[in-house]
Amino acid sequence: MTGPDNKNILVIGPPDSGKQTAIKNINGKNANILSASYGRAIINNTKNYLFSLKGDDGFKSFEDVLLSFENGEPADGVIILLDNSRGVMETDIEVMDMILSRNIPHIVFSNKQDLNNASLDEYFEESIIIPTIAKNGIGVQDGFKLLLKLIGQKKQHVNVRKSEYKYRKAFNSKKVHNKFREAEKLEKLKDILEESDNHDICKLRMFMHPIELEKMVKTLENHGFSNMTVAETKYIDNKNASMETYRCSQYDVQLKMKTEIIMILRKDDVQYVLKAVRSIKSDDIDDNILITPIERVLRVRTLEEGEEAID
């Protein structure tokens, strides 16, 4: 799908790292997405990096791949997707250096976390790393949304970001840079942890019979809500205790099973959640919905806060 406001997103990684699986789980209605595998060949003692676009024959340079979109514009952002069970290779680090040298907004997907959840921070200190399990869609859409935010930020701070990169390259001192980063983070955390009277964000809790869960989730997703936590819970029902048999003995069962959906959202959006729930309301969905104010929301990985942290 192409359009004047669509972002060009390039997904790259070693062969069989899960690129196509991740793309299938990205809701990229306003994005043009291409994927390419990469490798390295040494010719005449010179390292050559080869990129192969999905569906194309032959190999391209990194510059050519960045310009392979149908709209003729270069890639706005890059997702580098790595198979965490395979580990990080020298080629992966060198490809990342190529991305950094061009000041391209990017995200690292540390994929196949179900096979190996080791951290990649030591290899990519300058990058945001998103743990993912692409086959289950875990982390993929959140990482994609974060990349779109980085692209938007770059448009506003191009000169600053370029000067920061030149500073890192000129001094080449990770210790100095890490101390600067940690001091900056601590300073921001002090501001974040101050008391606030701003309660524009709230937590919403809904309870229902487990049989209603799938219908409820689909209804909320159709109304634009996808960030949900689902938990199993039990409640005491003194009025309607039932009898269950276990090993030839009968027992009173007062603890009944229910499913709980927890959502963190803007106060203004609560009315739309209620509208969605009313459209499928039944006796198996509780009448009571618990709504409590949230003082602050902080995304630890990026230090985004407030509404930006719940998108």
Automatic annotation (TrEMBL):
A GO CC term?
Answer: cytosol
GO terms for biological process, alphabetical: regulation of nitrogen utilization
Cited InterPro entries: N-reg_PII (IPR002187), N-reg_PII-like_a/b (IPR011322), N-reg_PII/ATP_PRibTrfase_C (IPR015867), P-loop_NTPase (IPR027417)
Give all O-UMP-tyrosine modified positions.
251
One of the record's GO molecular function terms: enzyme regulator activity
- What keyword terms does UniProt attach to this protein? Nitrogen fixation, Phosphoprotein, Transcription, Transcription regulation
Presence of keyword Transcription regulation: yes
What SUPFAM superfamilies does the record tag this protein with? GlnB-like, P-loop containing nucleoside triphosphate hydrolases
Is the Amino-acid biosynthesis keyword given for this protein?
A: no
Protein purpose: Could be involved in the regulation of nitrogen fixation.
In Swiss-Prot or TrEMBL terms, this protein is called Miro domain-containing protein MTH_765
Q: From which organism does this entry originate? A: Methanobacterium congolense
